[in-house]
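User: Okay, second chain of the day. Same drill as before: sequence in, structure tokens out.
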Amino acid sequence: MTTLDAKTAVMPATKQPVPRSAAERMRAHRDRRKDGLRCVMIQLFEEEVDNLIRKGLLNADARNNKYAVCEALHKHLDLTLRAAS
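Assistant: Same drill. Structure tokens below.
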């Protein structure tokens, strides 16, 4: 089974998710909550993906790889939100 990266709680950019049972999804949900993480789904405009590329957080070739975009967005959030605290 593919595991999640504990620090970013996303799949690595090169791996595809493996279907999981309801019990496994619930266990992952509880583990995330225990670690203070929340799982949310968001929509990005193409312009926002372009900005991630422009900032050097995402390789232009990976713009259609949702896992790479997710990692880039996490990098952006780490840089902006953690710097503010």
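The helical segments are 22-34, 46-54, 66-84.

User: Thanks, on to the next one.
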